[in-house]
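Dear H.,

Thanks for agreeing to be a second pair of eyes. The structure we're designing against is below in token form, covering all 292 positions.
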């Protein structure tokens, strides 16, 4: 069997095209485009790249970038004051605080300070709580989990009643995607570094999500034939054959798993572009909420 490739790149492009058209229509009617405020603290190169990519995506669809780049030694009080100012600024539709923050800052309280209706990353603890509770909907679904759910649905994964296994329980990916799958009536098992006999669990998965951060960790023998495999990992590995000296691989051994799975996301070109598309979509939703 050769798996269907879940093409996050083209799916995300169609979402971006749609948003671009909506914004162009607004501007043609004399209305303001949405504005996304990004806050980057310190000079971590990976975070700088992520923020740059988000800015590019905003430019492409016509969302205004309101960029705040702050030094590593920014205090909690300064950051808190900036978030409060952005909360009250009508030109700011959404606020994104790039994680991780330098160690001296209290991430939880800063995320909680972001106004719920501007929390386009969906990391305000109230948002996560609303995903977990029955009968409540989050204001925003965090971008990577939202992108994963969108891909599963677009490629007709039968979620209801499926055995879904999520490897990883982080606040930004593993835990929220597990909650979303539960909300959609999958039977979810969450695995982590202390899980015993992981393979016996993953081999039972109709839907397998890998969000671990370990290159090519999931091998073919861990995958049920025909399963939907979503690879969230982005890992850089040495590759002397490339000019850059490295290449990006996921948490799944793509070549061997693609021979067993029914459908699989590539890295790059799978979850990554969908995460950015969902950020743009959440910013459009924030605009709707602001204009209600
Ligand atoms: P974290 O490091 O926060 O979490 C990793 C999780 O994997 C933890 O729950 C950990 O368990 C678990 N884990 C680690 N080792 C094992 C193991 N041997 N067996 C089973 N579980 C294990 O990572 P993130 O969730 O932030 O990110 C995961 C990956 O996804 C990274 O490669 C990251 O770069 C990528 N990523 C990609 C995004 C995208 O847009 N494509 C967005 C966000 C992340 P424990 O809890 O016990 O420590």
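And this is the sequence the design step returned. I haven't edited it by hand at all.
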């Amino acid at each position: 069997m050769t798996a269907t490739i879940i093409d996050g790149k083209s799916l995300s492009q169609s979402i971006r095209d749609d948003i671009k058209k909506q914004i162009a229509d607004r501007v043609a009617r004399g209305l303001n485009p949405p504005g996304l405020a990004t806050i980057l603290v310190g000079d971590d190169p990976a975070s700088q790249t992520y923020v740059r990519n988000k800015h590019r995506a905003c430019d492409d669809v016509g969302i205004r970038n309101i960029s705040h780049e702050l030094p590593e030694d920014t205090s909690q009080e300064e950051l808190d004051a900036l978030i409060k100012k952005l909360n009250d600024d009508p030109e700011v539709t959404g606020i994104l605080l790039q994680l991780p923050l330098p160690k001296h800052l209290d991430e939880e309280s800063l995320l909680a300070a972001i106004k719920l209706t501007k929390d386009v990353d969906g990391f305000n603890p109230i948002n996560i709580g609303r995903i977990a509770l029955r009968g409540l909907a989050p204001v925003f679904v965090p971008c990577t989990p939202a992108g994963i759910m969108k891909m599963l649905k677009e490629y007709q994964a039968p979620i209801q009643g499926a055995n879904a296994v999520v490897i990883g329980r982080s606040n930004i990916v593993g835990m929220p995607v597990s909650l979303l799958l539960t909300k959609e009536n999958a039977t979810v098992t969450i695995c982590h570094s202390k899980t015993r006999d992981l393979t016996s669990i993953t081999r039972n998965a109709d839907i397998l999500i890998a969000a671990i951060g370990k290159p090519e960790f999931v091998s073919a023998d861990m995958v049920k034939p025909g399963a939907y495999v979503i690879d969230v990992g982005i890992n850089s590995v040495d590759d002397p054959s490339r000019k850059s000296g490295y290449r990006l691989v996921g948490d799944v051994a793509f070549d061997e798993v693609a021979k067993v799975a029914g459908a699989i996301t590539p890295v790059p070109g799978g979850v990554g572009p969908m995460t950015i598309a969902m950020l743009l979509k959440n910013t459009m939703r924030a605009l709707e909420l602001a204009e209600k």
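Two observations from my side: Residues 144, 167-170, 172-174, 191-195, 198, 211-214, 232-235, 271-272, 275 surround NDP (CB under 6 Å). The chain has two domains: 30-115, 142-272.

Warmly,
E.
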